[in-house]
Amino acid sequence: MAQFPASYSLPRFINAVIQCAAYGAYAVIFGFAIWILPRKFNVPAVKMFFFPAIIALFFFATLNIVLNLVIEMDSILDLGEVKEKPNLIIVAVFIVEITFTLSDVLGDMILFCRVYAVWGSRKEVLFPLLAVLLIAKAFELIVVATTIQMTIPKKLTFSSRVVTFYRAFVYVFAFVNAFANLSMTVLIASRVLWISRRCGLKLRWYHRTIAVITESGIIYPLFLIIEGAMITTSLRPPSPTTIGVISMGLGPTLIAVRVGSGSAYDHQSLRVAQSSHIVLSTDIGLESQHYQP
């Protein structure tokens, strides 16, 4: 019976435990969001976009973690030997990369809608942010396509120049993507904090803190910061693709919980506050529609 060296297999087992723990927490929050969000189906944006989007994000995360565990198990059984991968593993790597890309695009769409919800149709806010997002997605497509191309086994050797360009694109994409997500988080968090104060609600500081954390989608930018810090210190982040997909879905799912519970802020909350009738809006995408329970 083959013996697995602890120095090789133990980190991968730890990665699997971290993945399962993160996915378990995500599954609990997702279940609560699915239960509570239908209360706001009277808002078209919630019913037609937000609800299907968080389901898709959870599906991508589920598929990603299952396939990534298969890849990890294959690596453990191979004991790090360099050899041709089975077709199943190649397909798994391909799907993992695709689910990462789809989750990233869908998560950014939700956060962009959230920026619109709290800032309204301000072109000076939305247009620059949209431009940065499009640039990030362009770099992401190049990185993902190159990664898949380098994974497929074929009698094709990549020159050192190609590998250098690939690594440069990876770093540029990581920076632009982190900047875009962090910008959306800062825009949402600062606006939510400002709206909560202007509404005149006598909330304790921790209520505002919870609102800022859960509505700003801070989890994925926080993951990117931690991942970048670990890479600069030569540490290997645990399953960055799978944990990244989970964090992409967890942020919007927390927003869904706030929306479903009727406690999410947006720019229409100010209009209601001016009429001395405070109601927390749940409309995430329609400026002309406001739901009052």
Count of beta strands:
0
How many helical stretches?
Answer: 9
> Helix amount, in percent?
over 70%
**Distance between the first and last residues' Cα:** 64 Å
Strand content: under 5%
Structural class, please?
A: mainly alpha
Q: What is the fold named in CATH at topology level?
A: Rhopdopsin 7-helix transmembrane proteins
* Order of H and E elements: HHHHHHHHH
Count of separate structural domains: 1
From the 3D coordinates, which CATH architecture would you assign? Up-down Bundle
Transmembrane segments: 13-37, 49-69, 89-113, 125-148, 168-189, 210-231, 243-261
Keywords: Membrane, Transmembrane, Transmembrane helix
Give the gist of this structure.
The chain crosses the membrane at residues 13-37, 49-69, 89-113, 125-148, 168-189, 210-231, 243-261. With 293 residues, the chain is mostly helical.
Q: Could you outline the blueprint of secondary structure elements for this entry?
A:
Blueprint: H1 6-36, H2 44-78, H3 87-119, H4 123-151, H5 160-198, H6 205-215, H7 219-232, H8 240-260, H9 268-274
Helix pairs in contact: 1-2, 1-8, 2-3, 2-8, 3-4, 3-5, 3-8, 4-5, 5-6, 5-7, 7-8
Task: Give an overview in words.
It contains nine helices and no strands. Helix 1 (6-36) runs parallel beside helix 8 (240-260) and helix 3 (87-119) runs parallel beside helix 5. The protein has one domain (6-274): Rhopdopsin 7-helix transmembrane proteins. Residues 275-293 have low confidence and may be disordered. 75% of the residues lie in helices and 0% in strands. By secondary structure, it is mainly α. The chain crosses the membrane at residues 13-37, 49-69, 89-113, 125-148, 168-189, 210-231, 243-261. Keywords: Membrane, Transmembrane, Transmembrane helix.
